[in-house]
Amino acid sequence: MELLKPSPANSSPLTPLGFLERTATVYGDCTSIIYNDITYTWSQTHRRCLQLASSIVSLGITRGHVVSVLAPNIPAMYELHFSVPMAGAILNAINLRLDARTISVLLRHSESKLVFVDIHSRELILEALSFFPPDEQSPALVLITDYPEPAPDTVGFVATYEDLVQEGDPDFECVRPLSEWDPMILNYTSGTTSSPKGVVHCHRGIFIVTIDSLIAWNVPKQPVYLWTLPMFHANGWSYPWGIAALGGTNICLRKFDASTIYRLIDKHGVTHMCGAPVVLNMLSNSPDNKQLRNPVQILTAGAPPPAAVLFRTESLGFVVSHGYGLTETAGLVVSCAWKPGWNKLPAAERARLKARQGIKTPAMTEIDVVQPESGTSIKRDGSQLGEIVLRGGSIMLGYLKDPVGTSKAMKNGWFYTGDVGVMHPDGYLEIKDRSKDVIISGGENLSSVEVESVLYTHPAVNEAAVVARPDEFWGETPCAFVSLKVGLEKKTTEKDIIAYCREKLPHYMVPKTVVFNEDLPKTSTGKIQKFVLREMAKRLGSSRL
Predict the structure, then answer these.
(1) Which residues are CB-contacts of 408 (< 8 A; sequence separation ≥ 6)?
(2) Domain count, the chain
(3) Which of 8, 185, 488, 531 is 20 to 30 A distant from 497 in Cα terms?
(4) What does pTM read for this prediction?
(5) Domain CATH for 431
(6) Residue 417: helix, strand or coil by DSSP?
(7) What are phi and psi of 216, to 5 degrees?
């Protein structure tokens, strides 16, 4: 056959920016955003984003500049996911709960030119800029506020957010990427295991992962989506663009707890939401929990959710879907695709199967679990451990200014995740641990996740995390950090927890130490910070002394 070549007609750059224009045409009069008493339609959101992009350009931002945002899940945060790349710039959504010194480091590393700042983070950003060297140019600031009257203190800020929206040109022509490989997003990793790294994603990767995520989760047209997942966390797993593509409704909220979630589900008829397993635990353990009138689809990822938590959540009417992704994949690229025959299984078995991460999403090219040294695939027996590797269109371009880190992660045609897992005979993947969280006790590789899954079945346990504690004889032994449920009639002791685990685990996997904490240290997305707990366990000294 004659070899035909691409032409301008069939090779325009892939980008998710076109979703907004299409939806404004199809669903222009439908509700796009609800936030407290504020409601926008999709035609209004499209116009506001164009006006804001116009104003961003007027501030001197050009193609390839980094524009940062420090804000919770409010309308401005949503709009900036379109406006910044529409101005040709690269969006950098910063973790809202970082300290000022870390934010300063990220802004300097990214060479950010402009920062949009929520009013509640005003003092935080000013402190962050105070760490800049005197001879180094700091980024300009724009203040986002919920309070139009009285006028906020804007000293140190070039403008307010709403001023930029209102002064912008509604006929602004979107600055489209010259190539689909042009960078669009800069995200910094959460730092649960190491120092944050700057992950760069292109328009093509974000387009692919957005479409892929909608297909994998079977999201229908016009969903009602509750923003319980921070948009600064891997851009809300791509759903700012995804909900726009489907003409859905975004329920934005500054902060939430279980009672707020249940109230908004009832008020707005929420159909979909996302969250780390900690959100599932909060919903199922809250005294405000109640049976839902209509099913709510909830997508979870992050640390593997214990089967006991999945079972409790689904008993309330939530339909839990489980997936796996990283900042480096721009969203979820593995999903526990549900087989109809599994519905006939007992509830406990269904929960166990749903706790697995699953198979590759439709647009992901390939996943595997390999031996880190040789790169060869492990046995598909559900027990042999290996490192999870991925390849596909949504994998990052690389780490910003870190060629060594990029080459270590991207090798042999794969992205090496650093996560440890097994492959089951049916081809479904299951994470067992982060490579740094595997406990080696007496030469045995011990999965902290398996121990945690047992701890979560204890009726008194609210949250649990297991890390290594030094041991003179065994090298390392499991140390469990546990928070207990509120209002328990009987006091639960370390001996109680250890005895419970002895009944359900091999002897070498039973925690030798149990530490009770009211609150376990977490990232802003609800991931337990095991590196903090590891340091606490080290300070306890050897368990044999």
Answers:
(1) 416
(2) 3
(3) 531
(4) 0.83
(5) 3.40.50.12780
(6) strand
(7) -65, -35
